[in-house]
Amino acid sequence: MMATTPAPLVVLAAGGTGGHVFPAEALACEMIARGAALMLFTDRRGDAYGGTLGGLDSRTIRAGGIAGMGAGARVRSLADLAFGFAQAWRLLKRLAPRAVVGFGGYASVPTVLAAGVGGINTVIHEQNAVLGRANRVLANRVGRIATSFAEVAAVPAKARGKVVRTGMPVRPAFAQALHRAYAPPAADAPVHLLVLGGSQGARVLGEVVPAAIERLDPGLRRRLVISQQCRPEGLAAAEAVYRRLEVTVDLAPFFDDVPDRLAAAHLVIARAGASTVAELTAVGRPAILVPYPFAIDDHQSANARAAAAGGAAWVVAQDAFDADALAAQLSGLFADPGRLAAAADAARAAGAPDAARRLADLVAEMAGGLPGRAAMTPGTDGPDLGSAEGKGQR
What we know:
single chain; 394 residues; alpha/beta; Rossmann fold; 2 domains; seven-stranded parallel sheet; six-stranded parallel sheet; 14 helices; 41% helix; elongated; disordered C terminus
């Protein structure tokens, strides 16, 4: 009886927020389909993961951030990072993976550093249009830097030759939504508005959007069908406004069917996190983006500007986001379906719905011996970016 050759092992290093976890989930699905064995190195929050990541064999690695901390907290975090490095070093030496892929956030730093020191092939993925602090620590020490956007700020000069644009992998649940074409709102027909503010809903969206809807022409208001994420503490107030206005609305702190709601939307109002922008462009939906202004390096503003540059979105700074201005903007957009359709086309053209495949190709190339497609040369957008598939024209 012939011995079975074990599947090649790839380690994913991810933890923290959804922006880091979602692309890891998408890559995991693609790599498993190709026959790779996967293991997840994560932080203490990894126990909460569901989906494919939740089903992986995982190891908890100690980690700590250093940005924005005082001297004492920074010393403790550096000690955690050193301890995590030692943990990862011992595990990687025993496991001998073909490659380690980091997804940003300080949860990935000890593992990717240990892999580099141990001579293991390394790839990091940057979700935002500004290289994150953790990825900046790693940039000069890894083999490749996969990016979501064509232009990414803060990449160290010595690391620019390692950059490959793969795009931002979207969650597998969006697969069906990718094929639903955009149909602008018809005269006197329902108008679907989707308001997303992250899993907990943004407070400013919960306050401003209902007030703006109140200022709309009653005829337009009667046509609206609104799905809005709203923070739990703001839900009752928003619901009272909509009930008084007799607007058709579905309010919740969290939607578990965002792909369907996104595909049905004529317009989206949202923050500008990397996952949100990737989903908007993959599905091809126009958006008003209100970047979270207090993020380190203001990366959401960079994400939003990148989407707006190609005509896919309109950017409104939070300090300019008020009810009167939003009401005027909504009235203008819904009165001009052609403008919405053009933005939807621009969004789809900017998207990379096959980003998980491209990232898997890059990992396969770095690892050697994994099932893969075309090699991806640093400094390029990877294979097929100019094709209909690469631009989401399906």
